[in-house]
Design goal:
It contains 2 helices and no strands. The protein is mainly alpha-helical and about 60 residues long. The mean pLDDT is about 85.
Length: about 60
């Protein structure tokens, strides 16, 4: 296993867009933020809900 690639995104939208560009069928995309969601979202639930909405639109 191990890290095959690493990408630092400036925004949540940029991170999600990058995932859709590189992920292949059968891949897993993990939402694992390295910081709190202060300033971008009301709380962690809103961040998670946005991630789920984005994935469901694919």
């Amino acid at each position: 296993y191990g890290i095959k690639s690493l990408y630092f995104a400036e925004t949540f939208d940029e991170a999600l867009k990058h995932c859709t560009e590189i992920a292949k069928e059968g891949d897993a995309v993990l939402l694992s933020p390295a910081c709190a969601s202060w300033g971008m979202f009301e709380n962690y639930e809103q961040r998670g809900d946005l991630f789920k909405e984005y994935v469901n639109q694919l």
